[in-house]
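Example (one chain per record):
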Amino acid sequence: MEETLSLYGRLIQYINSNVQFLGEKITILGISFTATEIIIPVVFLILLNLFGNLVRATLINRILGRHIHDRKTILSIGNTTKYTILIIGIAVLLAATGLDESDQLNRVLINDAEDPFKVFDLLRLVFFLVLLVFFSGKFKTVFVKQILSKYSEDRGVSQSIGTIIQYVVILLGSLIIVQNSNINLGSLNVLAGALGVGIGFGLQNIANNFISGLIILFERPIKVGDRIDVGALSGDVVKISSRATTVNTNDNISYIIPNSDVINKQVVNWSHNDRNVRFRIPVGVSYKEDPAIIKEILLNVASEHSGVLAKPEPDLLFVEYGDSSLNFELVVWTNKFIDKPKILRSELYYRIFEKFKEQNIEIPYPQRDLHLKSGFERISDASQPSSGN
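Predicted structure:
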């Protein structure tokens, strides 16, 4: 480290001695420095960023693609590598510039006689907490995509396990970071009391949604990949976070639903056990048609459709003698059209119409008989010519 400091100091001294205007002292808030001491770190950060981008591009385009097929995982590893290089470079830069515990910027925030809490302690604490959250999120992505996906085909289960592990890592890591900082843990009792009051008043909804998110992850009434209905909203669950659940509709519109709504409201989960769902499609024909022929036609239409399951077999129910038609109900099972039932109905109706047209099957329209019991005498009297003198 001393060699690094020596090289940095020699570089500053060389530039200041050869470029006079860069070596002039600048004083702000009682701190004196030269322009060179600002320019060199900025140039170093620019070069460091370019180097990080180069390493990231090399990993993504030339190395990781040979071993990993998931594009999101490749991007996650590449970005994590770049940010790691930036963090290490910034740490080296801070060490080289002499920003350490003895610097005059490191002022006391909490005056504890045994171990005072200073500005750099606060910055270090925030830095490590942010770093912990960032890397735990990246670890979850790689763990779910590359490890759990090999042992479980259920994407929702993998996401739930990954999220729980991420929360555990953040909790344990936060405890370790706080314990190794210069914070007196006994003083946190006051903070805990203030936080409790805050939760009781202004943070109640946030705490409610967070606890509801934990219930969803452990109880798993819904999971990533499920098709759900919440009120008038219907869509696929794409993300379950600590505060809200993201549902994507067929129109590619994302709805952010608070986790408490998922727990407290009635939720219809179309794929809770599996993705096999039964749909009922009403069909009406004229009274003159033979029900046996209708059954044969409709079952053939259902069996020919690629989205209809062969097991359980399609079935046709004779529902009722309607006012104008014989009413049937075509019952089909599917696991491909669980998120687009209207498309399945539309395709089946198109095919049914073609078959009915080929077989001259009549599709009835509503018919009503009108019975007039009175009023004809007045009409008859009015239509007769009146006799005159």
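Caption: Residues 119-151 form the longest helix (33 residues).
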